[in-house]
Amino acid sequence: KDESRRLLSAREIQGKDESRRLLSAREIQANMVGIKAVFAKYLTFGKASPAALMVDNSDWLDDLDYIPFLRDYGRHFSVNRMLGFESVKLRLEREHALSFLEFNYMVLQAYDFLELARRYSCSLQMGGSDQWGNIVSGVELGRRADGLELYGLTTPLLVTSSGAKMGKTAEGAVWLNEDMFSAYDYWQYWRNTADADVGRFLRLFTELPLGEIKRLEALKGEEINDAKKTLANHATLLCHGEKAAAEAGETARKTFEEGTSGAALPTLTLPRAALEKGLPAFDLLKRAGLAESNAAARRLIKGGGGRVNDSLIA
């Protein structure tokens, strides 16, 4: 059972050339705990109705019999059409390996939708636009197998005014989990928003009244920084809570306006001997947890992502 869960956790990265690392059952369980903790900030989990429910697809995938599954559900999928999905076409056109396991992921996701409809009367699946093909496959499987009327809703990829994908920094991904990306770093991410994005992001990532947003996005010059701080405060409040948002804002104020260190500012303690001997910048970045390895730290510096007191590290 553990082995089947490990294999079924493999996913196809839409539009990328490499498949995800296979996860162990223990890693999957840890991920589920982390995911639920994030969503619990926005949803209410419990037995009451209405309440959010988190389920594990191993409840129905682990006990599948291969031949009966192919007979009952495989006949509803066209390989010709599956090969036409953009994610598959890109891999094949670039002559990158596409395993049978990865190719079957869309079948398993479609079957998940069918089981969710059967067990929990789930009729709507939501996801990013890169999941459109997989979601539509589930909608069609529900109709063909059980005569169900299912629906899909996808959202476009979020990009900045410059066209860059959101959710990335020079140091890596912007996580909603505080153990992966601190509330202070999250606050700073929004504080560093480009002027042209402030109004749109206030509408997307805060619950401020539209009248107040209109006032904030009309600010010019140095005053636009007040709008960015408001964006950072309210976006962080929604993700990490009022206390964490207030501490992050106060730390930023003390650090950048008073020149002192706030309580939420990450710190690193080093032995005096190491400092006297001298530390390469890449080593310091690695020790501070800003890079996973010396090589990654060097790449970060080379790409202009390393700064000391706002000065680029050469």
Structure explained in plain terms:
- The chain has helices spanning 2-8, 25-39, 58-61, 66-72, 79-84, 86-93, 100-103, 105-120, 132-146, 183-191, 198-205, 210-217, 224-240, 242-258, 272-277, 281-287, 294-302; strands at 124-128, 151-155, 168-169, 172-173, 307-308, 311-312.
- It has 314 residues and is mainly alpha-helical.
- It has a two-stranded parallel sheet with strand order 1-2. Strands 3-4 form a two-stranded antiparallel sheet.
- Strand 3 and strand 4 (172-173) form a beta hairpin.
- The termini are far apart.
Q: Care to give the gist of this entry?
A:
The protein is mostly helical and 314 residues long. The chain is built from 17 helices and six strands. The protein has three domains: 154 residues, HUPs (Rossmann fold, 3-Layer(aba) Sandwich), CATH 3.40.50.620; 86 residues, Tyrosyl-Transfer RNA Synthetase; 47 residues, no CATH class.
What does the secondary structure layout of this molecule look like, with pairings?
Layout lengths: L1 H7 L16 H15 L18 H4 L4 H7 L6 H6 L1 H8 L6 H4 L1 H16 L3 E5 L3 H15 L4 E5 L12 E2 L2 E2 L9 H9 L6 H8 L4 H8 L6 H17 L1 H17 L13 H6 L3 H7 L6 H9 L4 E2 L2 E2 L2
Parallel strand pairs: 1-2
Antiparallel strand pairs: 3-4, 5-6
